């Protein structure tokens, strides 16, 4: 096997024997085969209008290969078969891209090709969430095929860079689509305090990014005496009016994904994984883990969409599996009864349990997405003009297990009191329970949401630039990002495509960036690896 797509890759170079994430060689091989088949499907779709099934397969096929999503050989094989059936229907002559060729060839070309592939994988997750809520955009969908076809072609380094920048713009549109999907379905997030207290009695923990799954779970647990707690990237759900209205949505349990094996150990409640990041479940809680949608793990119970029945025809199965007709055919309606029954069977704790965040805080705030922040834009602008706010930092991104990630906690702790920290994604758990106070009523830590809410951060930055009549690069704003998986790759490409410079990135640099490609990014965009919080803060604030 070979895989170097995430930050924890073996030796900082590539996983070759088994994935650090737990991915087995056979699954890695199948995922490569699936990627080659998707390139084949894109080739077959050239010059044609592929149908909804081909679109859905493309999104789910890419999403299934994102880190910590699907470890199930059988499910990946099923996807490959469906892709082949669809490809044959479009053009029986179209050839798959050979899986063995994905990671081989000239080092710089492999690097550029991989960067585009990994970006596409990340964007597929966002497009899929939007698609589930009935939002698609023809140009975004079409670009998946364009990008996949490009992976199977030869390009010069300059052509690859052009493709990457084009991709970054498309991903901005895709994140905008998801923002529209989430806010039109559930309202605009409002600042919300979320306690870390788990009340006695039966409960369910829901993790991942899929708000539609949470909504269905809330509907199905109403009046059943079961409380719901978010975990990981589901935390921002508390801020959406159409989700927070459910009284059984009580609080947040646990922190970021890499702590799950410790946090879920003997948990007297089921855990529902709606997306990444799933780690191999330990025996002490494996019987209470449920996956849904594109997530999968061998022997772990899976909640399928409505018409994903064993005896369904391949097309019906695919329609159900891929949620086509979520609106018109209730294809994505799920029955969470097995999760609910497990919660009742396990019964929860017999007394209320108080938890804390990583720094001892007993509650966190979320819900400072674009609408909430821009709603107080005048106040923010006045505070900047009056010199009360000297600098904004966007400190966010994915979390991970490496010790070097303490950098982000220390960085935030060391920021001067006249600075504001915007944050998003699961990296925020390193510091979101810190009490850093406020500046004239504006909290110093503003949680904008999930990783995809990078869209909100971009909107806020653009609005501030307009207000101050300058470019985003001229704002007193610095991005200090942590990366782990492929959604971070697509977001980074969007930021670069927008021409945003001087981004700090860590805890280590992606293994898939060759020395030459990295040099280009450093020269063109002043992409900067993190050093120490003190040194970086000093450099940023003296600029
Ligand atoms: Fe965190 Fe994992 Fe959000 Fe990433 S929960 S690293 O997939 O997407 O961020
Ligand atoms: Fe290794 Fe990351 Fe790939 Fe898993 S996803 S096999 S940890 S590089």
Automatic annotation (TrEMBL):
Residues the entry annotates as binding [4Fe-4S] cluster: 3, 6, 15, 21
CDD domains: HCP
Pfam families reported for this sequence: Prismane
Top-rank taxon, per record: Bacteria
EC class: oxidoreductase
Keyword Lyase annotated: no
An example Gene Ontology molecular-function term: hydroxylamine reductase activity
Keywords noted in UniProt: 4Fe-4S, Cytoplasm, Iron, Iron-sulfur, Metal-binding, Oxidoreductase
Record protein name field: Hydroxylamine reductase
Species assigned in the record: Sporomusa termitida
